[in-house]
Design a protein that fits this description.
Order of helices and strands: HHHEEHHHEHHHHHH
Strand order of the largest sheet: 1-2-3
Number of strands: 3
CATH architecture of the largest domain: Orthogonal Bundle
Radius of gyration: 22 Å
CATH class of the largest domain: Mainly Alpha
Number of domains: 2
Structural class: mainly alpha
CATH topology of the largest domain: Cytochrome Bc1 Complex, Chain D, domain 2
Distance between the termini: 52 Å
Number of helices: 12
């Protein structure tokens, strides 16, 4: 009996040791990636400060969902509080105490927005810059102009910390912890489509949908999201689980009023109120693009 207990103790000790070693590896490797420095060349954008440009920038900030994470006044706050995964705090983007705007030059804004890189070259955590990377120079400049015009708000959001589950999901390729890794920072800038009710312009606008609906737009649980987060739906033309049977009018209603074709309410987690601020041309372009996608079953990311 004593020998059996001894062997059981050795096995248990070995398993604990392996678990500790695995945890150390997960932390060490993820920390290495989080501390990597990116050398992103400064982009010389012309950032006008006129009211028309600022208004355009505000429109982009709203319809691209900046306030979903950074708050209505863009002064930051808590986004996710699930310590095993992450305690995620969005940055204060204003010039107030605790904000970053006072120390940012135009090139710093551009690198953060389109490359996910801080002024010191370190990658930003969770900032979905892979979705903002295609942003045209004109739209990027307008967004920066708007951010620079924000009234100062004093707020010091907490420090983001990534838990063991979040780090493991990141290393398994299930969580976009460092979007800077998803971008070819030395590639030529992608061509910006002409604004209009076209599939091409819809593709440009719909890049902000992939964060929840997935690269294939077919929905499914967001990797690493807390269990209380609603599961995004399929917005491909699949007629069983997607929007293949939706008319353009019904699609407009979903974004303008937050209602499905059957009249049921869309979960407010889906930021339809932001999208409701889009122009008719923008909504029509997104509808055309989504309808042009291959129909995928629900959750086929």
């Amino acid at each position: 009996m004593k020998k059996l207990l001894k062997w059981a103790g050795l096995v248990l000790g070995g398993l604990v040791g392996l678990a500790v070693l695995a945890l150390a590896v997960v932390y060490g490797v993820s920390e290495f990636h989080m501390r990597k420095t990116y050398n992103v060349a400064a982009m010389a954008l012309v950032v006008p400060g006129d009211s028309e440009t600022i208004a355009r920038g505000r429109h982009i900030a709203i319809t691209r969902g900046c306030n979903d994470c950074h708050g209505e006044n863009l002064a930051g706050g808590t986004v996710i509080d699930a310590p095993p995964v992450a305690r995620l705090f969005a940055t204060n983007l204003t010039r107030g105490e605790g904000g970053v705007a006072a120390g940012y030059q135009d090139a710093d804004w551009e690198r953060a927005i389109r490359h996910g890189v801080r002024p010191d070259g370190k990658p930003l955590l969770f900032m979905p810059s892979h979705e903002f990377y295609p942003l045209s120079d004109a739209d990027a400049s307008a967004l920066i102009a708007y951010l620079k015009s924000l009234p100062p708000v004093d707020n010091r959001p907490g420090r983001t910390r990534i838990g063991p589950v979040g780090r493991a999901l990141y290393l398994a390729g299930q969580m976009h912890l460092l979007p800077a890794e998803l971008i070819d920072h030395s590639a030529p800038r992608p061509a910006a489509p002409v604004a209009g009710a076209t599939v091409e312009y819809g593709a440009y606008l719909a890049t902000g949908c992939v964060g929840c609906h997935g690269d294939g737009y077919s929905g499914g649980k967001i990797p690493g999201a807390p269990p209380e987060f609603p599961i995004p739906t399929n917005i491909t033309p699949d007629r069983q689980t997607g929007i293949g049977s939706w008319t353009e009018q019904e699609f407009f209603r979903s974004l303008r009023e937050g209602k499905r074709p059957d009249g049921s309410e869309i979960n407010p987690f889906m930021p339809w109120k932001n999208f409701s601020q889009m122009t008719d041309e923008e909504i029509r372009a997104i509808y055309l693009y989504l309808q042009s996608l291959p129909a995928r079953p629900f959750g086929q990311r």
